[in-house]
Amino acid sequence: MTSEAPDSAADGSADASATTTFADLGLRGPVLAAIADVGYETPSAIQAATIPPLLAGRDVLGTAQTGTGKTAAFALPILERLDRERGRPQALVLAPTRELALQVCEAFERYAAHSGGVHVLPIYGGQGYGVQLSALRRGVHVVVGTPGRIVDHLGKGTLDLSGLRFLVLDEADEMLSMGFAEDLETILGSTPQDKQVALFSATMPAPIRRLSQTYLRDPEHIAVAGRTQTATNVTQRYLVVSYAQKLDALTRILEVEDAEATIVFTRTKNETEVVAEKLRARGHAAAAINGDIQQVQREKTVKQLRSGDLDVLVATDVAARGLDVDRIGLVVNYDLPIDTESYVHRVGRTGRAGRAGRAISFVTPRERRLLTAIEKATRQPLTPMHLPSVEDVNATRLTRFDDSITEALGRAGEIDQFRDIVAHYVAHHDVPEVDVAAALALAAHGGPLLLDAEAEQVREQFEADRRAATEGRQRGGKAAHGGRDRRLGGAAMTTYRIAVGRRHKVEPRQIMGAIANEGGLGRGDVGAISIHSGFSLVDLPSDLPAGVLRRLGRTRISGQLIDLRPDTGRRAPARGASRGGAPGARKGGQN
Ligand code: AMP
Question: How far is the CA of 68 from the centre of ligand 1 (A)?
Answer without folding.
Answer: 6
